């Protein structure tokens, strides 16, 4: 009952925060930052309490796909909210808040099973998992920035006066932050892959090969785009599409097989 209450409470405030930001999306003064922070903070704290009660149980740690997804979502929400305190993130906030609300609500209905595990402390494994989680979060945020960049650029090319006088961030600022995040995320993903090959056995074993191959494909695209931008000034629609494809591959690598096994097939 506590899990349900926390999920609904967090979803409610994410929805309220989303509605407030969207209602003032093209207002020149933007959304009321104080109200946005209050609503999002209540949602984030409820989300955090939900994770604590869902992951840490009397029998051990529940690291089911749903809980890992909720944890990843929480990290992304906290990161984007923190960034919004200094830089306008009017387009990003409703996306991450809205997705968080949907995920929290869906988690109540997805027929996943509690997978109880007692984690043995292995430094190499901890390093690999930490780097992988950080890389995923940073690169997903970079993908959101890429979509934001494409949207603003497209509206400006069509001489949309509403967006020119809105509270949305300057295009060059979005582009600069996009490639900073992409560089950091690609570096973290590189380190995550190196740590995996260094500390873990069987990266190309039958049960893990699809994750390894998809991760390497995503890394290749991210690294190519990052290098192409810094060396040759690549930008534009093709870069945004490439980043989105790489993020999709990375998401399949991180969550695809586990989601099918745990949720669809009901295997442990």
Automatic annotation (TrEMBL):
Q: Name one GO molecular function term.
A: heme binding
From what superkingdom does this record's organism come?
Bacteria
* Cellular component, GO annotation: plasma membrane
- InterPro entries, per the entry: Cyt_c_assembly, YpjD/HemX
Q: Which GO terms describe its biological process?
A: cytochrome complex assembly
- Identify the species of origin: Pseudoalteromonas holothuriae
> Cytochrome c assembly protein domain spans which residues?
41-264
UniProt name for this protein: Inner membrane protein YpjD
